[in-house]
Design goal:
11 helices, kinase activity, kinase, ten-stranded mixed β-sheet, globular, about 25% strand, binds 2-keto 3 deoxy 6 phospho gluconate, Carb_kinase_PfkB-like, 2-keto-3-deoxygluconate kinase, alpha/beta, about 35% helix, UDP-N-acetylmuramoyl-L-alanine:D-glutamate ligase, PfkB_dom
């Protein structure tokens, strides 16, 4: 078996998300809505909807919950031939959706999941990457434990030696690192040393370089990106969002893409009436990667990332499901019914 030529390949965990409906707290829940997520899978689903071939490498539990996760991913247009079943359990997370000034909160129940208990040798990375166009990774997988961290470092090395570019989204999750006393700086540094594209803002870059970036706005962001390029000379593109949270339902966001010799920052968009903020970072990554795969200029990449992120705020669930037409309609600015 080998992967499909020209695919964007992701490696990471598929999770089930359980959310009390009606923005209830978990303590009040009598039922739970189910969604399927996972940072890398979300990016692949977003790219698949924009017309790019995508493929996931993962392991899910050999039970109905695992079949739900795999079936959902496949129904989103992602090639799942390298997602296998194994004994164990699915990782879960619970989302308490906030309201107004009450912030949302995530609790994980994923320790010892089928994926987190897997090791590098449980995956056929070389076959899956054969002919791939890009490998997408996130900082969540290495935060699951040393076996997962080693698996990410292994797949990154295989991609690099095959000349396949790697994109990496920081997705810093303090709860996961704290659960096993992992050293994010050391492990993420090793992974990013193999990457070409990084999604991360000035805080992520501070964590990695130990530098602090003062001031506000575009200057601080350029300074941080420059520090990223200086520390990781392999990086060719750094992308980030700037988010001002007004309340749970109202954020202002702008997008930025830096190349070593160029940069672009969009204006801020007021996003009101937010339905679901989870997955918007992954939607941003999918939008920027869409631009990158299309050979777009730096501002078009930033705009595509921002557009997909803004649209994702309107959709329940973790995965962006927007077509090129949806993105184009958003960019044209028409907000009335399309008929
Ligand atoms: O938390 C995890 O481990 C997951 O993978 C679940 C979610 O699907 C992503 O976290 C969404 O990520 P954002 O786009 O940054 O909101």
């Amino acid at each position: 078996m080998k992967g499909e030529t020209g695919s964007v390949v992701g490696f990471g965990e598929l999770l089930l998300r359980l959310t009390p409906p009606g923005r209830k707290m978990i303590a009040q829940a009598q039922s739970l809505d189910v969604e399927v997520g996972g940072a890398e899978a979300n990016v692949l689903a977003g790219l698949a909807h924009l017309g790019h071939p995508t493929m996931m490498i993962s392991r899910v539990a050999n039970n109905p919950l695992g079949r739900l996760a795999l079936g959902t991913l496949a129904s989103r247009g992602v090639d799942t031939r390298f997602v296998s079943y194994a004994d164990g359990r699915m990782g879960l997370y619970f989302l308490e959706q906030g309201q107004g000034l009450r912030a949302s909160a995530i609790s994980y129940d994923r320790a010892g999941s089928t994926f987190a208990s897997s090791r590098a040798e449980d995956f056929d990375f070389a076959a899956a990457l054969d002919g791939a166009r890009l490998l997408h990774l996130s900082g969540i997988t290495p935060a699951l434990g040393m076996d997962s961290a080693n698996a990410v470092m292994e797949v990154a090395k295989i991609a690099r030696s095959a000349g396949i570019p790697i994109s990496f989204d920081g997705n810093f999750r303090p709860q996961l690192w704290a659960a096993w006393d992992g050293n994010p700086k050391e492990i993420l540094t090793e992974i990013i040393s193999n990457a070409d594209i990084m999604f991360g803002n000035h805080q992520d870059i501070s964590l990695l370089t130990g530098q602090r970036f003062s001031g506000d706005g575009p200057d601080r962001r350029r300074e941080a990106a420059q520090a990223g390029f200086d520390t990781f000379p392999n990086l060719r593109l750094i992308a980030s969002t700037a988010r001002h949270v007004i309340d749970v339902d109202h954020h202002r966001i702008a997008a930025r893409v830096d190349l070593p010799e160029d940069s672009a920052q969009t204006g801020e968009i007021d996003v009101t009436g937010i339905i679901d903020r989870i997955g918007t970072g992954d939607a941003f990554a999918a939008g920027v990667l869409h631009g990158y795969l299309e050979g777009a200029d730096v501002m078009s990449m930033a705009r595509a990332g921002l557009g997909l992120a803004v649209l994702e705020h309107s959709l329940p669930g973790d995965m962006p499901l927007f077509s090129r037409d949806d993105l184009a309609a958003f960019e044209r600015g028409g907000r009335d019914v399309r008929r």
